[in-house]
Design a protein that fits this description.
Number of domains: 1
Helix content: 55-70%
Order of helices and strands: HHH
Number of strands: 0
Largest sheet: none
């Protein structure tokens, strides 16, 4: 059980809300808007190093693909960390 949650119904509500939030964050139209904003900031500020972090690997791949269309390839590098451990 989640820390501090002992009621199964309450826990299910938490999980449902988390699933809704993940779906919202990974929606194609939202990724397009976020990536367009990121690309504009990169161009305007000539950032040397920045990170884009996504909740799931598949969402990270979607962001990378969208950034590939907007920025020169030498500006981008995909770094992943394959772990399911969250502290």
């Amino acid at each position: 059980m989640a820390e501090g949650v002992t009621d199964v119904e309450e826990l299910n509500k938490v999980f449902d809300r988390a699933a809704e939030l993940c779906a919202f964050l990974a929606a194609a139209h939202r990724i397009e808007k976020v990536v367009a904003f990121i690309a504009e900031r990169f161009r305007k500020n000539a950032l040397d190093k920045s990170f884009v972090v996504a909740a799931r690997c598949v969402d990270c791949a979607k962001c990378k693909k969208a950034l590939d269309e907007l920025l020169p390839p030498e500006w981008l590098r995909l770094l992943t960390r394959r772990t399911r451990r969250i502290r």
